[in-house]
UniProtKB/TrEMBL annotation:
InterPro entries assigned to the protein according to its UniProt record, in alphabetical order: Transthyretin-like (IPR001534), Transthyretin-like_sf (IPR038479)
Assigned protein family: Belongs to the nematode transthyretin-like family.
GO CC entries: cell surface; extracellular region
Keywords assigned: Secreted, Signal
Signal peptide: 1-18
Keyword Lipid metabolism carried by entry: no
Subcellular location as annotated: Secreted
Name of the featured protein: Transthyretin-like family protein
TM regions (residue ranges): none
Main location: secreted
Length: 130
């Protein structure tokens, strides 16, 4: 019973101490010198004791561009990153895809917009197949 009371009290205190933190990311994605259209881009935030949160997501436009803004209410500094799901360099595109993750520096949390050009062929990626 004490554990439940402690847990509830801690949750209430945490919710009053937490503060909004916002990240803005703009970019262009390409694969082998061609724009990457319709690629899933997620702005995510790493959590230590829970699954990572998705703050925002979208598919790239016809010109390979994306623009994401996400806000998270946390006690400690958030650790944002981009997760890009794509088929650049994948031969079995009907059953396989790659996931590329790009860390976002803390200076972009509640700061200026993080602008980047992403060349998927130069990024470390994990390939998975269904």
């Amino acid at each position: 019973m004490r554990f439940i009371f402690f847990f509830i009290a801690a949750a209430i205190i945490a919710s009053t101490v937490a503060y909004d933190q916002t990240v803005k990311v703009n970019g262009t994605i390409s694969c082998n010198r061609r724009v990457a259209r319709n690629v899933l881009v997620q702005l995510r935030e790493r959590d230590t004791f829970d699954t990572d949160d998705t703050l925002a997501s979208m598919y790239t436009n016809d010109d390979g561009t994306f623009r994401l803004t996400g806000t998270e209410d946390e006690i400690t500094s958030i650790r944002p990153y981009l997760r890009i799901t794509h088929t650049c360099g994948v031969t079995a595109r009907d059953v396989c895809h790659k996931i590329t993750e790009i860390e976002i520096e803390k200076k972009f949390v509640n700061g200026e917009t993080f602008n980047l050009d992403i060349y998927l062929e130069n990024q470390k990626s994990k390939e998975t197949c269904d």
